[in-house]
Every structure is written in structure tokens, then in C-alpha cells.
Amino acid sequence: MLDNPIASIRNLRVEFQTKDGPVLAVDDVSFDIRPSETVCIVGESGSGKSVSSLSLMRLVEFGGGEISGGRLIFDRKTGGETDLAITDQKLMRTIRGNEIGMIFQEPMTALNPVFTVGRQLTEGLRIHMGMNRAQAKARALELLKQVRIPEPERRLQQYPHELSGGMRQRVVIAMAMACEPRLLIADEPTTALDVTIQAEILALMDRLKRETGTAVMFITHDMAVVAQMADRVVVMFRGKKVEEGTVDEIFNSPKHDYTKALLAAVPRLGEMQGKSLPEPMKLLGDTEHSRKPIPGTEEVLLEVKNLVTRFPVKGGFFRRTVANVHAVEDVSFSINKGQTLSLVGESGCGKSTAGRSILRLVEPLSGQIRLGDTDIVALDQQGLRKARLDMQMVFQDPFASLNPQMQLMDQVAEPMRNYGTVKGDALRKRVEMLFDRVELPRSFMRRYPHELSGGQRQRVAIARALALNPKLIISDEAVSALDVSVQAQVLNLMMELQAELGISYLFISHDMAVVERVSHNVGVMYLGRIVELGPRAAVFEDPQHPYTQALMKAVPVADPSKRKAEKDLNFKPIPSPIHPVDYEPAPSEYTEVTPGHFLLTSDSGY
Asked: What domain of life (predicted)?
């Protein structure tokens, strides 16, 4: 049985027609996926990983691609092999979702914004499994519990935009699992998830794989996830397969230069021990002189005191406020000029809301926000517009934050046009310089966002944030969707810019290894409060709060011999942040454990 692969990709070749002629996205790629096996496909964005999976689903045609050669043999539930490369779309509709499930990379674009989560979850069950409404709803509820979404009954009634990024991704995973497919294609399924949920989702997928014999094709750029999940690894580079082997072979004795470079770019937890300051990563081929620690200054740039942000929950006939979501509750911290403070925590803990409240993209309920001498909370619209010259944001999902109808050149130039900082020929030169800074070819300036890979789009977003020379950049999961080599380059770029221009960062992330690499100070958030705050070395090497300790334990390590077992992960379910209108939470009280290292002593609920 094990010798019979569920899917065999043979000499696959995929082309895309572009304005500049045909582009070969995948060239002569072959590999097998067997029952109960996880095959991880790794490589940079643009290497053809996602195109291979979309070809197997025959979705590549809808994106302008064409399978111009090769065979895609799939062993169906009903028995008998089918070549998916020549199957008609009518039969493919039966196979998709029912026999091959797919978890897409960007959950906001994979979910339909006009239907509730419940409707989207039950649709596949009713079409493929022939369930009635009540059965489908019961199964949908069971699936949401499986992927550990809090308050699943309420979530079924909600729309995708009402959920955090991590929750949306869990809904997409539940949808892919719904019909118990024979083959599950997971395209970066955990990029937008925080460590605790990532650890659980990986354990969940592993358990489902063992129980149902599902084969998993796992596309990722996170080498720690590969070490945790893979049985075999296929390394891709520029549309070709450059190496294939068992997970131990790839990690312990990589043969190809590209695989070695990929492994060298992985930030590993614990690498910064004994170093008090962040410093850029040493990548293959780098010279030594460019890797200097970044001290920053002692001058405070941003001060946040007792920040509270709540969202009303409306209900009843008159849509009155019946409760409040306590997204950010009594949060205080400061960031020095030229330094980085990272906020870490699970999705839904309020870290993104805190970042948006500082820019007043979300209006805070109370608290003080001072940027230099400016009181941000007191500003009117005109004053706020002026203040935003000094503070910019890089959002988590670059596809949603870029305008699909504008060329990239205009998107990067737009902030400068809006504020009139640079004009004419100088504007074009500055845009070219920004493209050079984020290491994108100038020929991309004429392209549109959909013509770029995820990592390239995120670089455009960073270039746009740098356009106005801001003093503070709030980076909301800015590198979570990037592959390792690109992530390492973007992080190094951000740190070099910090050293050169004295930019301060509020770095919002769930990737503990990345946070350890870039931070001067770290704040750990749980249920809207900072439960631990201090210098990076203190928080990482001596975590005091039980929640921080649980977070550290969940981080996957890029070493196949240190896999986490499901029994190691004992997270408590997150309590609901929704409270009645008259609920008054206690203020946050801290004790100083060591100089600058603060621990929340009032009840954090963990």
C-alpha cells in the first residue's frame, strides 16, 4: 500500500504569459506523495512551490498559467488513477475539496467577505457529503472546536473581517479538513499564526494524517516547521527541483549550495544568548564589517501610558452596545530613538490593535500617546495628518494594503505626492532609490501587485513606509509571510536602515526567533495586557510569567531531532475578551524583577 503514491508529479512544466513574453514558472519537476506522508516543498517565494500545488488542483489556469508538459497522477478514493493534467474542469470540481483539500496562504483572500463563516464551512459539506443543514452545522461546529477557535457558536455567525488573522487561518484549515480529503495541500498554512496556535495546528494536522491516512503536501519557507513536520523534503529554486531527501538528510548533510544558504538564513532561538544588542544576521557570502550591533540612543521617542482600546459589540433591534471587546487594556511602554520594542503574543491578544491605536487608525478610548513633543491623542484631523509624516505602518497582509489598480511605482510615490515632499524628476529618482534599498529590480516599477510574490509585495510595502523618512515605523507581522532567505534579507535591511537613519520600530510579531534577533526590548501580551516587559535578554533568557514560559516552549526548532510531541503543548484555552458594558477591569500592576524587567502582578487570567 505504501508503495502506491497518492499523487505523483512527473516532469511538470508550467508557463505564464506576460507582457514581456512567456515565463517558465515550473520546469521539469517530479516527486511523489505517499499515504500518511508529509512532503515539505521549500524554497524562496517565486521558486514555483505554490504553482506546483495550484497545478495539482488545476487552479493554475484561473491565474493565467498553463500546464505545458508533464503528468499529474492522482490515486482517487474510488480506486483508479487519474491524470489531473488532462482532466476536465467538471470532474475537477468533484475532486477539489472532496479528495484534495487545500489550505491557502492568505486567509483573507481565500474566504469570501460577503458570507458568514458558518455558510462557507457548511457549503462544501452539503455539496460533497450530501449533508442537510443541521448535520452540516453540527460538523462545522465540531471542526471549529478541532482547530481550537474560542466561542465557535458565535464565530459561525460572524464574517471573515470580524476575525483576527490567526482565526481566519484556522477557519481556512477547518474548511480544508471538512471532507477528510485523501491529499491535503497546505500552502504556508501557519505563516499568519502565532507560535502556540502554530504548534497546535501542526500537531492537529499530524494527528489527522495518522488517523485518516491523509497525505500532506506542505509548502512552507519556515525551516523550523519543516523540521517539525516533514518526512521528506523537496527543495525548489527558480522553478526547478534542486534537492530531495529525508528530513534528516536535508538538515544534517545538505548537498546543494542553495539548500545550505537556506539553512544558514534561519534565525534560531537562542542564537543571541550573551548579546545584549540586536545585530543583523550573517548570511552566506556576507562580509564581516556590515554586521555591527545596533545600540540606539537613550532618548525616548514614543511614550504610551495606560492605553485602552475597546470595540463595542452591538445587538438587539436598535443595534445598541450590549458588550465591549477589551482589545487593549491599560498598556504602557516607551521606545527610544533608534531602538526596537517588540510586542509578542497570540492572535487576538491586542498587539495589532495597540499598534493601530498609536497611529490612531483605531481610536483609543483613553490613555496618552506622545511621539517626541507631540500628544497624538489630542490632535485634530489636520494635526494628525502632519504627525503621520513621522510615523508609518507596514501591514501584515501586503496584498490587502496595496492598491490592486495602481502600478508599484505610483504606490511608493503616493505618500511623497500627498505630502508634496519631493517633486518631478527627484521623485522618480527617490522611488528608484527606494526600490534599490529593498532590493527589488527597477523593472518591477511598472508591475501591479498581483504580478509579484508575497515576499516581493511586502518589500514594496516597506519601501512605501520609508518614502517619507519617518521616525517610527510600526511593523505589524511585516516578515511573517516571507520566506527565510527573503525574511533574513528584509530583517537585515530594516536593521541597517535603523542603524543608518535612526528609525525606531514597534515590531509586532509572533515569531520568537525573529523577535530575539531584532529587539532591544520585548513586551509579551496576553488578553490585551502586557504581562511581561523588559530588555530582550532578560525576557528570553529568564522568562518569569507562566504565559511567556508557555510561549517559549511552543517555538519549533529548526532541528528534526528536537521535534515537539503533542503532550508537550498544554495551553489553556484563551478566555473571552468580551465583557458587559458595566465591567470595570482592575488596573495593571507591575513588580520590577530585575532593573527594567517588569512582571504583571495583578491577575492576568492565565
From this structure: Bacteria
Helix 424-437 crosses helix 408-419 at what angle (to 10 degrees)?
Answer: 130
Closest CA to 39 of 27, 47, 30: 30
Query: At residue 212, does pLDDT exceed 80?
Result: no
pLDDT of residue 288: 52
Distances (CA, A) of 347 to 325, 473, 549: 14, 21, 17
Widest pairwise Cα distance in the chain? 72
Q: Is the pLDDT of residue 72 over 80?
A: yes
Cell of 604: 492576568
Strands (E), 194-281: 215-219, 232-237, 240-246
Which cell goes with 325?
471587546
**d(C-alpha 518, C-alpha 123), whole Å:** 43
Contact 394, 350 (CB under 8 A): no
Average pLDDT over residues 555-584: 78
Tell me what the pLDDT averaged over the chain comes to: 87
Considering Cα of 348, then 218, then 226, then 291, what sign does the dihedral take?
Answer: negative
What span, in angstroms and rounded, lies between the C-alpha atoms of 579 and 473? 32
Per the listing, cell 513588580 goes with: 591
Query: How many residues comprise the chain?
Result: 606
CA distances from 373 to 325, 339, 507 (A): 31, 18, 22
Closest CA to 536 of 494, 477, 591, 597: 597
* Cβ proximity of 144 and 152 under 8 Å: yes
Q: Bridge partners of 578?
A: 325
| Pair 596, 538: CB distance under 8 Å | yes
C-alpha cell at 95: 475532486
Sign of CA dihedral 338, 343, 347, 349: negative
Nearest partner of 356 among 389, 396, 324, judged by Cα? 396
3-class state of residue 344 by DSSP: strand
Helix (H) or strand (E) holding 139: helix 133-146
Note the pLDDT tens digit of each residue in 17-62.
877 788 888 999 999 999 889 999 998 777 888 888 889 889 888 8
Domains and CATH numbers, the chain: 7-265 (3.40.50.300)
Residue 504 C-alpha cell reads as: 525606531
State the number of CA atoms in the 13 A half-sphere of 458 facing the CB: 23
The tens digit of pLDDT for each residue in 578-605 reads: 889 888 888 889 999 999 999 998 776 6
List the one residue out of 392, 361, 353 whose CA is nearest residue 505.
392
Nearest-10 Cα torsion for 198, 200, 206, 207: -160
* pTM of the predicted structure, to 2 decimals: 0.77
Q: Is 282 helix (H, G, I), strand (E, B) or coil?
A: coil
